[in-house]
Amino acid sequence: MIKKFDKKDEESGSGSNPFQHLEKSAVLQEARIFNETPINPRRCLHILTKIIYLLNQGEHFGTTEATEAFFAMTRLFQSNDQTLRRMCYLTIKEMANISEDVIIVTSSLTKDMTGKEDVYRGPAIRALCRITDTTMLQAIERYMKQAIVDKVPSVSSSALVSSLHMVKMSFDVVKRWVNEAQEAASSDNIMVQYHALGLLYHLRKNDRLAVTKMLNKFTKSGLKSPFAYCMMIRIASKLLEETEGGHDSPLFDFIESCLRNKHEMVVYEAASAIVHMPKCTARELAPAVSVLQLFCSSPKAALRYAAVRTLNKVAMKHPSAVTACNLDLENLITDSNRSIATLAITTLLKTGSESSVDRLMKQISSFVSEISDEFKVVVVQAISALCQKYPRKHSVMMNFLSNMLRDDGGFEYKRAIVDCIISIIEENPESKETGLAHLCEFIEDCEHTVLATKILHMLGKEGPRTPTPSKYIRFIFNRVVLESEAVRAAAVSALAKFGAQNDDLLPSVLVLMQRCMMDSDDEVRDRATFYMNVLQQKQKALNAAYIFNGLSVSVPGLEKSLHQYTLEPSEKPFDMKTVPLATAPITEQKTEIAPMATSKLPEKLAPARQDIYQEQLAAIPEFKGLGPLFKSSEPVQLTEAETEYVVRCIKHTFANHMIFQFDCTNTLNDQLLQRVQVQMEPSESYEVLHYVPAPSLHYSQPNSCYSLVRLPEDDPTAVSCTFSCTMKYLVRDCDPNTGEPDDDGYDDEYVLEDLEVTVADHIQKVLKPNFGAAWEEIGDEFEKEETFALATVRTLDEAVNNIISFLGMQPCERSDKVPENKNSHVLFLAGVFRGGHDVLVRARLALADGVTMQVTVRSTDENVVDVILASVG
Amino acid sequence: MDSAALEPSLYTVKAVFILDNDGNRLLSKYYDPELYPSMKEQKNFEMNVFNKTHKADNEISFLEGMTIVYKSSIDLFFYVAGSAQENELMLMAVLNCLFESLSQMLRKNVEKRTLLDNMDGVFLVVDEIIDGGVILESDPQQVIEKVNYRCVSEQAYGFVLFDYITGNMEDQGEKRQLL
């Protein structure tokens, strides 16, 4: 490494480096003069400098040679040359980890630390603490205590800072010095005060009361050091957050008073602390924002940067609070420091009006290549937020994004752009073609597999439905030729979707597929062969089932069922319908546009909620033989929030049964409840088969009891039912302190709110990525249509939301979003009815005086169609 | 750029480094053992920072998740790095103190040649300003007094020789003053 730099230096000639030709072995050789008498301070100093320089350049010293040099160095303590002695301390610190037996210098250092030479004392303490371990610490404890309260500031500071470093190593010993630190905290020297405060806090931070006391003391007596003020502000805001103290707390007053401190550092720290407080109101923000506004016109770049960065954070939550600063921010958009300019512009994009967007975007594109990736991501996030706010600006944004996509940049940056473009495409049908074209161009030269597969999936989904799907084929097939396995496989799937949807493209797609079947990778070949065979059948239903709308089962559930099947071999073929459905449709997860964490977005693979319930219920013997769990509802509260007992219910639906799980919590600390069960009185022909009581309900320990209900078999249309519920239990009074219950108790009951079962409980949401294909697949065998007038509903949005929540089905094709200023809308809903029957609903809505709705239902089962129509009516 | 609040701590500085005008390291100190533990990562980081900052004298930047304040002088670049949530003005105070101290020590000749000729003094100055990431001193005057270093410079070579010959006597004189 060094050699390489040397060469460059030789070429550059005159600006020569006296250390450039240093060889470690030669320097160590030279170090022998340490042993000469008398000591030549100047030469020894030069050699020590060389050693430290080499260490700093990353030269590796072996233990033996380092130890040898270290021992030779110890002789230099005989010299009284100040700089030489100081360099010895540095060498000790640098070599503490590479040399052996460094503790032999302990006595020399202890001597210097307690000696008369004040210039030696501070550095000697720091060097000594660096080589001291837990066992040795006791020996120097006395000296450390004295040093902390020494009247020479450098000695006191050194002792305090060294103590802080040693807190990690031996907390218990350092804790004993708290009184000395306390004394040092009232020192007149600003650095001593700062270091003492820091050490005190580290020693007491787990004791909230002590921290509060300390804060009170110093807020009253006042401090001299601006650094100490900054520390105090941080401690105070942390304490405020932990105690969830209101803004009338004295701590908040203290922070606010710091806004008037004479040091900019303190003022900024206070403003930043206020801005970062959760739940800060606009009124409390105002003084902080106004000091930041002042800083915006500071001649110091660091201060402007600090101010605008903090304002940018305010603008994320309270854009209106920042509008007052717009003028100052405008002045910063031409700042020569591009970081400041970027932050100013992104802040303005959040606070400004639609008319200023074009101007700001132009400004930012003039220097976007000069800023670092971190800031580019900030820009993309601002654009993404802007597109949601002003959808009409998409063409400006799209252009800008595509330019950014062409520039160099890391993965995080590219991913932010791709996510942003995809979200624009999904929000805004008009931007679809340009967006797809930009993405196509991007994957031509994309090194990130994740992004390439994501884009290919997007192309497969959206491409076939554009006016000229053929132009995307080239981009996709290029990937099959040029990319890695994962990308090739994704490209094959995308191709298949084009072939399935566009008849005129089918022959060409089949030719391409044939080429893919000769791929070297198994997955790619398998996919190609599979799609080839499906496509050759030329049946819409097959296409819909196997190409557009893949499996909708939960993957862990499928794994478990298959495993089960292989354990118990049987004649029957494996039935897909026994696999629980995926609860959250995977593809519908919206990209997080809210402030992204810098990098980490751990891909969680936690089992879905429903898989957990399935396991829990399967463990209860009464519930054997019900088949797979079909759907679990969201919890419904059956009590008010602040009552003696809190009960909520989760409805689990099976093929022919329902289980009601009551999660009960006892909030009375003087009662123990036993044999808790919820008695249910159905209004319809539902039959309660079993109660599984909770054996006992201790104070604030939730427990569950269950009821098993059989659904009426003779009348499949009876999907809704109301149950009146009563909780019955045995009360045993107990001592609130010990929890010891009385020997005998008495029966009691508690009336809960009614529980309703609706049609939504029988339907599981399923996302059909291609609704049209699914609609054709089911066919019109059991199609029924009816028209309703929704008199009470005033807007299309409201109507759409009502229907979705009532039926509990999954809106497809983004039809849950009603475009603005339209009088009619079509809503597509998909789901699976209990028992595994697909059901699709198409609702045409028209807005005139109230909303008129024409509902068309298709399903694989006639009863289901009736049920849906009956329940809507 | 997340907004997580800063744990109150004295550990303010994550790294300090001085580079020449080719981006080569002259002095580097990393105070956070988790940050770039290997020499290769450190030098990569320094190069990256240098490439992003040497063209424009902008004083402050945000790179690899850290706030970095910097300053250049002739053929030298001085950098102080702290966490993203750190008070930028505190880092600036450290940088200013470092620069002012060196400027005084080197008698305003803040350039590579003089710096390297007085490398021992530079090591001592850095050591007096930051100890293991904690700001030890922020006043350049105090730093100079504590280091008490006499600069070697070509212009003043005669004086240096003189100092060197009479070194012991003057040392004692100063000691008396300090006591």
TrEMBL record, chain A:
GO terms, biological process: endoplasmic reticulum to Golgi vesicle-mediated transport; intra-Golgi vesicle-mediated transport; intracellular protein transport; organelle transport along microtubule; protein secretion
Keyword Transport (UniProt): yes
Coatomer gamma subunit appendage Ig-like subdomain domain: residues covered: 612-758
A Gene Ontology cellular-component term: Golgi membrane
SUPFAM superfamilies per record: ARM repeat, Clathrin adaptor appendage domain, Subdomain of clathrin and coatomer appendage domain
Keywords carried by this UniProt record: Cytoplasm, Cytoplasmic vesicle, ER-Golgi transport, Golgi apparatus, Membrane, Protein transport, Repeat, Transport
Biased composition, class Basic and acidic residues, residue ranges: 1-11
An example Gene Ontology molecular-function term: structural molecule activity
Entry membrane topology: Peripheral membrane protein
UniProt domain Clathrin/coatomer adaptor adaptin-like N-terminal: residue ranges: 24-538
Family annotation (PANTHER family): COATOMER SUBUNIT GAMMA, COATOMER SUBUNIT GAMMA-2
Stated name of the protein: Coatomer subunit gamma
Species the sequence originates in: Cyprinus carpio carpio
Lineage of the organism: Eukaryota, Metazoa, Chordata, Craniata, Vertebrata
From TrEMBL, chain B:
Pfam families recorded: Clat_adaptor_s (PF01217)
Domain (AP complex mu/sigma subunit): residue spans on this chain: 12-149
Single Gene Ontology BP annotation: intra-Golgi vesicle-mediated transport
Domain of life: Eukaryota
Keyword Protein transport (UniProt): yes
SUPFAM superfamilies named among the record's database cross-references: SNARE-like
Chief place where the protein resides: cytoplasm
Membrane topology category: Peripheral membrane protein
One GO cellular component, as annotated: COPI vesicle coat
Keyword vocabulary terms for this entry: Cytoplasm, Cytoplasmic vesicle, ER-Golgi transport, Golgi apparatus, Membrane, Protein transport, Transport
SUBUNIT field: Oligomeric complex that consists of at least the alpha, beta, beta', gamma, delta, epsilon and zeta subunits.
Family per record: Belongs to the adaptor complexes small subunit family.
Function: The coatomer is a cytosolic protein complex that binds to dilysine motifs and reversibly associates with Golgi non-clathrin-coated vesicles, which further mediate biosynthetic protein transport from the ER, via the Golgi up to the trans Golgi network. Coatomer complex is required for budding from Golgi membranes, and is essential for the retrograde Golgi-to-ER transport of dilysine-tagged proteins. The zeta subunit may be involved in regulating the coat assembly and, hence, the rate of biosynthetic protein transport due to its association-dissociation properties with the coatomer complex.
Identification of the protein by name: Coatomer subunit zeta
Organism: Cyprinus carpio carpio
